[in-house]
Write a structure and sequence with these properties.
Elements lengths: L4 H4 L2 H4 L10 H8 L5 E2 L11 H13 L10 H11 L6 E4 L2 H12 L5 E6 L4 H8 L3 E6 L8 H9 L4 E5 L11 H10 L5 E5 L3 H4 L8 H6 L5 E6 L12 E5 L2 H10 L7 H12 L1 H24 L3 E2 L6 E5 L4 H10 L2 E2 L1 E2 L8 E5 L3 H16 L4
Parallel strand pairs: 1-11, 3-4, 3-5, 5-6, 6-7
Antiparallel strand pairs: 2-8, 7-8, 9-10, 10-13, 12-13
The protein binds pyridoxal-5'-phosphate.
């Protein structure tokens, strides 16, 4: 009998759910015949990257592409360290912060270890631990999409080795307040690695109740890491670069051992340095997104839809009917959204905020689809 590839694949891998990136915009373009697809499925910035990034890309091309990147990413790590007041040796870089989620699981998890995270949540907070054979316990949010402190406290008492907590959360956009984050930190066993995923923190920073996770964890004598990304507010999703600030240099060194040596390419390093230096562009993106967040959420609520209280650059909307069907109808009109598929949220879509014009088209089309009574 010949060996099939399927018989070679590890059991944990064969059972992994596939990551769902949302519908393919090329297919949506073909299906809808729309001249321009409005892509609201990946929480990308409609305002693009800083002009300084284009300049960095041109310089990078002029220098030529034949050399390997700096495997330590020292210039970028130093720039990040300087901007946040931490030594560069505690900064870890990744091919997107997703890459760091993966490296953390590879470095820390043994088969059977327990990982605690939230539901609904970011699928990679579950997929990467399961890849390592870990068990994942997902703590549900409250009925109002809030953080369930009592449920978290019970889950943390079970002794996880790794905790993945996003603030603000994806897909709800809801944030933990200063007091809530303090409680999770206090309830997390000191033997666990606490991973605070702040992919959307720039959007939440203006909120007076949004905690400075880094400042809160900085004084803690325990293992932790705060993850950030250039993909969302900085508008560099296509270039792939994220970073983490770790409790200690030893954690960074452990991740160095499991990562591929050139995981962050030279273009990404140069683009991120340029993006980091343009405070005005970041502030402008955050301000414009905040205006749209308030305006679009109000419009949905005014139409009687349930919308999670978001502090990020997207909305989690209860359509009151099959989200898969709603998404399909939106795709036919050239708008890409993400139908949520976690149990209990089959009627929800997650839609990124875009420009005022795009958001208006989205509100109008979705309202029309729901008024037709698709179920
Ligand atoms: C988008 C996102 C990330 C990371 O994105 P990268 O592009 O890999 O940096 C991480 N966590 C959450 C919760 C996200 O939504």
């Amino acid at each position: 009998m010949s060996t099939t590839s399927a018989s070679l694949v590890r059991r944990e891998v064969a059972g992994l759910p596939a990551y769902d990136p949302g519908a393919d915009p090329d297919e949506v373009a073909a299906l809808s015949g729309a001249a321009r697809v409005i892509k609201l499925s990946n929480n990308e910035s409609p305002f693009g990257a800083s002009p300084a990034v284009a300049e960095a890309v041109r310089r990078w091309l002029a220098d030529g592409v034949s050399r390997y990147p700096d495997p330590t990413g020292k210039r970028l790590a130093e720039a990040i360290g300087k901007s946040l007041g931490v030594p560069a040796e505690r900064v870890v870089l990744g091919n997107g912060s997703e890459n760091i989620l993966e490296l953390l699981c590879q470095a820390v998890l043994d088969p059977g270890d327990l990982v605690t995270t939230q539901a609904p949540g970011f699928s990679l907070h579950e997929i990467f631990p399961r890849m390592m054979g870990a068990r994942v316990e997902k703590v549900p949010v409250t009925a109002e999409f809030g953080f369930d402190a009592a449920a978290w406290r019970a889950a943390l008492a079970a002794g996880p080795k790794l905790v993945f907590l996003a603030n603000p959360c994806n897909p709800t956009g809801a944030m933990l307040s200063v007091g809530e984050l303090k409680r999770v930190v206090a309830d997390t066993p000191e033997s666990a690695l606490l991973v605070l995923d702040e992919a959307y923190c720039e959007f939440a920073h203006p909120h007076p109740e949004y905690p400075d996770g880094l400042a809160m964890l900085r004084g803690q004598d325990r293992p932790w890491i705060v993850l950030r990304t250039f993909s969302k507010a900085y508008g560099l999703a296509g270039i792939r670069v994220g970073f983490g600030i770790a409790s200690d240099a030893a954690l960074v060194q452990a991740l160095d051992r499991v990562r591929t040596p050139y995981n962050v390419n030279q273009l990404a390093q140069a683009a991120a340095i340029a993006a980091l230096g343009d405070h005005a562009h970041l502030a402008d993106t955050v301000r414009r997104t905040g205006v749209e967040l308030a305006r679009v959420a109000d419009r949905w609520r005014g139409k009687g839809f349930r919308v999670a209280p978001s502090s990020a650059n997207f909305l989690f909307i209860d359509t009151g009917r099959s989200a898969d069907r709603v998404a399909e109808e939106l795709h036919r009109t050239g708008i890409v959204v993400k139908a949520w598929r976690e149990p209990g949220y089959e009627n929800f879509i997650r839609a990124s905020l875009s420009t005022p014009e795009d958001n208006d088209v989205f509100v109008r089309r979705l309202a029309e689809i729901c008024a037709k009574g698709t179920r």
